[in-house]
Fold this sequence. Notes:
Elements lengths: L6 H6 L1 H19 L4 H21 L5 E3 L4 E3 L1 H27 L6 H18 L3 H19 L6 H32 L4 H6 L8 H18 L8 H7 L2 H22 L3 H5 L1 H23 L4 H22 L2 H28 L15 H4 L1 H15 L5 H15 L3 H27 L12 H19 L1 H8 L4
Antiparallel strand pairs: 1-2
Helix pairs in contact: 2-3, 2-5, 3-4, 3-5, 4-5, 4-11, 4-15, 4-20, 5-6, 5-11, 6-7, 6-11, 7-9, 7-10, 9-11, 10-11, 10-14, 11-14, 11-15, 13-14, 13-19, 14-15, 14-18, 14-19, 15-17, 15-18, 15-20, 15-21, 17-19, 17-20, 18-19, 18-20, 20-21
Amino acid sequence: MDVTIGFHDLAATAPLTIVSCAALLALLVDAFIPRSSTLILWLSIAGLVIAMATALVLLPDRGLAYGGMVTVGGYASFLAVVFCVSGILSMLFSAGYLASHGIDKGEYYVLMLLSVAGMILMAAAADLVIFFLGLELMSVCFYVLAGFSRLNLLSNEAGLKYFLLGAFATGFLLYGIALIYGSTGTTFIPAALGGVGARTGEPLFLIGLALLLIGLAFKVAAVPFHMWVPDVYEGAPTTVTGFMSTGGKAAAFSAFLLIFAPTVVGSIASVRDVLAALAVLSMVVGNIIAIAQTNVKRMLAYSSIAHAGYLLVGVVAGNAAGQNGILFYLLAYTIMNVAAFGIVSILETREGKHLTFEEYEGLSARRPVLAALMALFMFSLAGIPPFAGFFGKYYVFAGAVEAGYTWLAIVGVIMSVVSAYYYLRLSMVMYFREGVPGLTSPANALAMAGLILSALGIIGLGLFPSAIVQLTLPLF
Length: 476
């Protein structure tokens, strides 16, 4: 196939172009200007802000670029905004954290930019090969970021474990793509999946879909492909954990929407049943095990598994309500979860202290602003109205009810009630227990700016959820 790349392609995919150029510029600055991490930070944030603005401008557009391999505007542009939000907030929290932990290196921000570029490419892919390239670009950056604190044994373990298991899952995914190509003769997603109803009797095609499902289930940390999450999330630098748990999860769910919803789940009942089982297992296992955690990072890790289950409910629904519910949920979850990890990164010491529930006791007396913001994010993650987390769950559950999966929505509601225990437990120990003196180091100004922006975003999405829903309605 003869693919001619011109200025039109670069302009049509402006968010991807801008983030990629920002990464290359940051890499050059890091190579030629000593001790330039602050400059690289601002270059990176500026690149993501400009990319987010162009994604919003391109939102109403529709089309293809790069010979029909990359989609333009619409759904891809909205998710580009989500990825940029995750990157910007993570970078704001990273500046003080990296300095306090002695790992303030410019390549950190380069890796974050490249991973965002991979996420954007995943969401915009119209071809399975392009999707795979985006996935690997994101994943390789995550492997390095997870082990970025090279003198920390837990970080080394996190990077190695994520690399080994991630490479194993990638093998499943790539083999699935190969089988789908073998049975359909194309990797162009609309053509490969357009006649999926007529291929339900082809074992090669069904095995390919199953392998794709396994690979993507690993990336979103759905049970039973979740075992890497607690150790990787705990060992990785906290700001990296927040970034991986939001941007990475959103990118993986973009693939679920591209490949499985609504075409596949609407045509193959067995696939829908498997996804429903994954959703139930993720919600139940994630929430139940999170109750027993005493480490805040591990609690948030298991809760992220549960949130993957909630999002899978929208995939199972396979209708417009479920799809738009997923987009709203991803935006809300990105803001509230990266901010929660942001507060953990502010309080965490270089020695890895102040990560347990016990060490958060009495935080409201010592750090009232941080305690109030953490309580806000916990309320939103628990799905308490009128915050954004409530409406995220409402929209995906409403989509499931509309699709006839009322029982799945009921399981989701019950598990949301269960999750309130450990989220509110953290708020309780901050406000109703007396703790020992500590946690008194001042927060970095950029980190506080990120927290304020996150709080405003959570409250704004909670007060005006319909504005985002109306924005996403015409995207599919």
